[in-house]
From TrEMBL:
It comes from the Bacteria. This is Non-ribosomal peptide synthase. It holds the Pfam family PhyH.
Amino acid sequence: MTSLTDGLTAEQVQFFKDNGYVGPFDLYEPGEAQKIWSKAMIEMALSKNKPHNSTIINYDRHLDCDTLSEHISRPEIVNKLRSLLGDDIICWKSNIFQKQPGDAGTGWHQVEKYIVGETTTAATPSLNFAYSRDDDTVLQDVSVWTAFSPAKRENGCLRFIRGSQKRWFYDETKRLTKSPERKTDFFGYDYSELQIDPSWDPEKDDVVDMEMEPGQFVLFVEKCVHGSLPNISDQTRLGYASRYVIPQTKVYEHVDKLVEFGDEISLDYHGCVLVSGEDRYGYNRIYTKNLNGYEFRRVANA
């Protein structure tokens, strides 16, 4: 009998390799998911150890919210990550994605190194990988997107272009320009400016609308072109993305602050969390406890 905490099957691993994503999988019951998010919201509002003061760059609240600290290393998530990344895994970043009624969709985009400074020509990568990204036999990063509300077409579900991780459609090193009047979910930045072929129409490709129930999660590689639909409903869509790499990856190696979407934060607070296995490299600051003293869980080998 299959357990929720099992890893991926061979067929699911192959599906991920072919398509760039796999899921959704069950994690919480729908009602439980919404209660968990309400608890997390209260913790974040009352936090005395908030990592940074930005209201735009809503990153890394797993470092000061005990509920999210527990979430990032749930066995249901980690054991599936092991099937893709191996036993040694660190969580290096998390994002809150809240889409209010009337909010625009998030434009199609494709990420490799999370280039810092969208409006500068001297951009710096957030991730320096251990192996060449041309070597598709080694997977080095996976994102886990968890729905804490219904995520349907009408309120802005996540979308993928199936198999798009096999080639580059966007150049993240190119310069973006800000136009506040733009109706995009990138704070006035339009990622279509980064298209390598301006004539390519993503909407005519093999688009998958990833509808999810509260408490479900999907795994994907950031190289898989993804975005989201606009929220044309009266219901807010809540998503939380936790991001994982192998410890050989150097995180923020030459970066001491993030300058993104018109905001800026220092990275003095930042640290990675070892959710599985060992870190034999010592490239990154590793936190064993969050900023409140809550001890992070490392999932034991199966």
